[in-house]
Design brief:
Length: 297
């Protein structure tokens, strides 16, 4: 069965909606755009497309290789599409969560969080190093179970297309849909650097995974999201955006004194340091909770 690439079909619509939101930002003012920031995001999106053409074959080859040893011949039955949708979304949740919890994967994913604005152009700010960083490994179990690689790729593409529209401040709460779907409100929380919101709402399409695994945090009017990363890089240079964390990680590993330090610099939480002098999400959240407790007493 030939399945289309949803992202390729959606690219022209991405451009139309970004322009429309830019016009809304000018005339309504409930969305913020900065020309250099939006240009950087779109450059990163273009670079992501080129990178996939150059390095995406590695992911395709390894997924196809694993599929040769599949446990079941699932094929393209109607029930398989339903199950594949849920399993792909669950795989995305764990990819996304671990990409925030382990520096090796964060080095690729941090690109998406470097904008200090939150608008539709931010959705296009994508990594150039995902394939060579091995992020595709989170989908290998599906291929091993027996889901066709094309089916996995199709739902992965649909997930990315879905996530485009939730990168906006123009849409508030969405009623009962907030319980099931990833929405702009939920994803604003994910992009926020406020200690209350750090490392939460990893959902792709369904927010149910965050609710199940204890990573769901609701947006509050009293704590407006502040976007970016904990230590903002303050650049619009696409090459610095793409590679700054890899460079920092290599430098830290090279300066480490023991193998334990080297492993933690590469695979520990982002911000890990031997003496605890650098902030991590966990330390920032702990300090915030302690402050909240003090204020209550």
């Amino acid at each position: 069965m030939n399945l289309p690439d949803p992202v390729t079909w959606a690219i022209p619509l991405f451009g139309v909606f970004v322009v429309a939101e830019m016009l809304r930002a000018r005339h309504v003012g409930d969305v913020t755009y900065e020309a250099k920031d939006a240009a950087a995001s779109m450059t990163m999106g273009f670079g992501n497309t080129v990178a996939k053409l150059l390095t995406g074959g590695l992911a395709v080859a390894l997924i196809a290789y694993v599929h040769q040893f599949r446990l079941f011949d699932i094929g393209y039955a109607a029930w398989a599409f339903v199950v594949c949708f849920f399993l792909e979304d669950l795989s995305y949740y764990w990819f996304h969560r671990i990409s925030h919890e382990r520096r090796w994967f964060w080095a690729s994913h941090v690109v998406h969080h470097t904008s200090q604005h939150y608008n539709l152009s931010t959705a296009l700010r994508q990594t150039w190093t995902g394939s060579i960083g091995g992020t595709f490994i989170f989908w290998l179990p599906m291929a091993w179970i027996g889901f066709p690689p094309l089916m996995i790729a199709f739902f992965s593409g649909l997930s990315l297309v879905y996530q485009f529209w939730i990168h906006t401040e123009a849409i508030d709460r969405m009623g009962p849909l907030e319980w099931v779907l990833n929405t702009p409100s939920h994803h604003r929380v994910h992009h926020a650097t406020n200690p209350r919101y750090l490392d939460s709402n990893y959902a792709g399409v369904l927010i149910i995974w965050d609710r199940m695994f204890g990573t769901f945090v609701e947006e509050t009017k009293e704590d407006k999201p502040i976007y970016g990363v904990v230590s903002n890089i303050h650049t619009f240079n696409p090459f610095r955006i793409a590679f700054h964390e890899w460079i920092g990680m290599v430098r830290d590993v090279g300066q480490a004194k023991t193998w334990r330090e080297r492993l933690n610099f590469a695979f520990g939480p982002p911000g890990w340091s031997p003496d605890g002098s650098r902030p991590t999400s966990a330390s920032l959240k702990a300090a915030w909770r302690a402050k909240q407790q003090q204020e209550l007493h």
